[in-house]
Design a protein that fits this description.
Layout lengths: L2 H32 L7 H12 L12 H32 L2 H15 L7 H7 L4 H25 L3 H8 L5 H36 L7 H10 L3 H40 L2
Length: 271
C-alpha cells in the first residue's frame, strides 16, 4: 500500500472520529449546562459504565460479575437468534427463489407474517414458550428472519440464466446446485439481509428482555428506570450503541473478506 493511500485512509479515519468526538463534546456541554437529572453527561454515564462492568479485579480482565448477568446473556441471545434466522432464511430462500411455483403458493403467507409487528406477538410467545430465553429467541427470530429470507429469494431468483443453462449440462443434483451455484451467486443479497437483520436483532433483543426476563441489558435498563437510577439506564443505551457498532463492523469485515470481489466489480463498473 502506497504512503499516499495510507495517509488518505488515516485522514478519513481521523476525520470520522473527530466528528464523533465533537458530537460527544457538544453533548457534554449541553447536559452540563441543562443540569437535568433525566439527561446525564457523557462523563457521568462513562463513570457508571466503568463501575458496573469494568471495575473488577485484574485477574478477571477488570470485568465485574455484572457482565455475566447483563451483557453475556444478551449477546448470546442476539447471536444465537441471528444465526438460527440466517440458517432458516437462507435455506428456505434458496429453495423458494429457484421455484416460481412454490413462491407463488407461499408468498401470501410470507407477506402476511412479515407484516405483523414482532412486539405485538410477545404475549403470544409468552403463552407458547417458557418464559426466559426460549420466548426471547422466538421473538427475535420471528422479527429478523424476513430480511434474510426475502433477500435470499431475490438473490436466488435473479441468477443469470446463462449460468443455469451451463450447469444443467453438468447434471448437478438439486441440493448441490443450490449449494455450489445459487448460494455463491446470492451472497451479496444475503449479506445485505444479514446486516439489516443484525440491527433488528439488537432492537428486538432489548424489547424481549423488557418482558419476562431476569437478566440482560434490557432488564438492567428497565430495572434502572423503575428505580430512577437514570445514569444506569443511559449506560445501557450507550452500551447497546457500542455493541451494535462493533457487531456491524465485524460483519462488514467478514463481508469484505467473502464478497470483496462484488464490491470491487461494482466500483469498476460504476454501479
Amino acid at each position: 500500500m502506497s504512503t499516499v493511500r495510507l495517509g488518505r485512509r488515516a485522514a478519513e479515519f481521523g476525520g470520522k472520529w473527530l466528528v464523533f468526538a465533537g458530537a460527544v463534546a457538544l453533548w457534554q456541554l449541553a447536559a452540563a449546562a441543562a443540569q437535568n437529572s433525566y439527561f446525564p453527561t457523557p462523563v457521568a454515564i462513562g463513570q457508571t459504565m466503568v463501575e458496573l462492568w469494568l471495575s473488577g479485579p485484574p485477574s478477571h480482565l477488570f470485568l465485574t460479575d455484572a457482565v455475566e448477568t447483563d451483557i453475556v446473556p444478551s449477546v448470546v441471545r442476539l447471536l444465537g437468534a441471528w444465526a438460527l434466522s440466517a440458517v432458516i432464511g437462507v435455506t428456505f430462500g434458496l429453495v423458494l427463489g429457484r421455484s416460481d411455483k412454490l413462491y407463488d403458493y407461499f408468498s401470501p403467507v410470507l407477506n402476511f407474517l412479515r407484516s405483523v409487528p414482532p412486539p405485538a406477538l410477545a404475549p403470544v410467545f409468552l403463552v407458547l414458550f417458557p418464559i426466559g430465553t426460549p420466548m426471547q429467541l422466538a421473538t427475535i427470530i420471528f422479527g429478523i428472519v424476513w430480511p434474510i429470507l426475502l433477500n435470499t429469494i431475490d438473490g436466488a431468483h435473479t441468477l443469470d440464466e446463462t449460468v443455469v443453462e451451463t450447469t444443467r449440462s453438468m447434471r448437478l443434483s438439486k441440493p448441490r446446485f443450490l449449494a455450489t451455484v445459487v448460494f455463491p451467486a446470492a451472497l451479496p443479497k444475503i449479506f445485505a439481509g444479514l446486516r439489516v437483520s443484525l440491527s433488528l436483532a439488537l432492537i428486538l433483543m432489548v424489547i424481549s428482555e423488557l418482558v419476562g426476563s431476569t437478566d440482560g441489558i434490557g432488564y438492567r435498563m428497565i430495572l434502572a428506570q423503575r428505580n430512577f437510577v437514570l445514569t444506569e439506564m443511559w449506560a445501557g443505551i450507550v452500551l447497546l450503541g457500542i455493541l451494535g457498532y462493533v457487531l456491524n463492523a465485524l460483519l462488514l469485515a467478514v463481508q469484505n473478506r467473502v464478497i470483496g470481489w462484488h464490491t470491487r466489480s461494482k466500483s469498476l463498473t460504476g454501479r
